Amino acid sequence: MKRDSLFLKIFGLFAMMFLLINQSFAQFQLSGEFRPRVEYRHGFKNLVTDDDKAAFQISQRTRLNAGYQLENMKFGLSLQDVRLWGETPQLVASSNRMMLHQAWAEYGFNEQFSIKVGRQELVYDDARIFGNVDWAQQARAHDLALLKYEKKFKLHVGLAFNQQNDLLRTTNYDMTSNYKTLQFLWYHRKIGKLGFSMLFLNNGMEFKKVENNADVYKTVFSQTIGTHLTYKSGKTSIYGNAYYSGGKDASDRKLSAYNTMIGLDFDLDNGFGLGAGWELLSGTSQKEKQLNANYTNKSFNPFYGTNHKFNGFMDYFYVGNHLNYVGLSDLFANVSYKTGKANFLVTVHLFKAANELVEPVLSNTLMDKGLGTEIDFSLAYKLNDFASLSAGYSQMFGTETLAVIRGGDYKATNNWAWLMVTFKPVFLK
């Protein structure tokens, strides 16, 4: 089926729905999103050498969103196409790029209590543990049931069980990048100037091993519990996180890890703002791994958070990398400026390993823990009510230690630049 024809049919279906719904006492909205992004990469996510040529690409996300509400029922649908410019021929006969990003229904038992089921985004607190990863063109969504109670406080309970194939026997699951089962509880309350949240996550991963020439499956569980706090008084905002993970990791190894963060933002006059903070994600000593085969995994995993938001925009840490390793210490400071429709932000990160690093050739020699300094510049400008422009430039000043553990040349120029335009029109309302 041709892509243009498919989009026209889907758009026509939504338009027919609108005409029918308009005759009743329902609320319906049809909106879209068109988001092309240009990127120059010469050191993004990993160090390069002077001989490496830079990468240049244009990616695009196109979405069609529909929302419908009638009395105590809500429905949401989001279809998206994610692609790189040029990845398909100009005369394409068929395409399977369109995907379902969200499709959910919510039923309200009363004004406070409801249940929401289906594919949906999860964003809680500062998105450290649960986030929609909106920077990624494909973003993140979960298949689960969500029980919600919201009145003087908010209490959410999430339940999920995943299957990869339609089976008649067993529940074996081979998708190692995803959880097999998940349960979480999130509590949030605001008391005056204090915002308080508690999160408990029971994360079940499928572990597979071979016994007697046969695959044996086992679901291993980790438990994460923690809090997110915010406090705002006048021009000063303070925020912090504290999480602990125990149980077993995805390889059935004992887990004991933690994450802490504290930060402060202060608004100055004339649109300026200052911020500073420190985050620590615990790691596993490489020396201990050498000496003890039954070592405990002490590396914290931020699970399903929007990790691009933290630890530098160049994604050197915890964006598909740096897991089950030496952890990270991130000392950061920023300066912001707001004027009219424009927002400017400059952030500096000082990175260090949180635990011991062993030199790979001289196994008894510990390396310096310093990993590098990253500087991020970003700009956001609102063009009008449905369009915005954003851009950024980042540079990583890596260390010899970073080059040893990740490859590349820390003396080379490692930088990244991007430009993105976002259109979010509302077609029908």
Would you kindly provide a written description of the structure presented here, covering whatever features stand out?
This protein has helices at residues 3-21, 286-291, 400-406; strands spanning 27-42, 55-70, 73-84, 98-108, 113-120, 142-150, 154-161, 181-191, 194-211, 214-233, 236-248, 254-267, 272-281, 328-339, 342-352, 370-384, 387-398, 414-423, 426-428. By secondary structure, the chain is mainly β. The chain has one domain (36-59, 111-428): Porin (Beta Barrel). It has an 18-stranded antiparallel beta barrel. The radius of gyration is 24 Å and the shape is globular. The chain starts with a helix and ends with a strand. 27% of the residues are buried. The mean pLDDT is 93.
Question: How would you briefly describe this protein structure?
Answer:
The protein has 429 residues and is mostly beta strands. Helix content is 7%, strand content 53%.
Feature tags:
Porin; single chain; globular; 18-stranded antiparallel barrel; 3 helices; 429 residues; mainly beta
- DSSP strand count: 19
Using the 3D structure, state the CATH architecture.
Answer: Beta Barrel
Biggest sheet descriptor: 18 strands, antiparallel, barrel
Shape descriptor: globular
Strand content: over 45%
Distance between the termini: 29 Å
CATH structural fold name? Porin
**Rg for CA atoms:** 24 Å
Number of helices: 3
Order of helices and strands: HEEEEEEEEEEEEEHEEEEHEE
What structural class is derived from the secondary structure elements? mainly beta
Average pLDDT reading: 93
The tally of domains stands at 1
Which CATH C-level class is it?
A: Mainly Beta
Low-confidence stretches: none
The percentage helix is under 10%
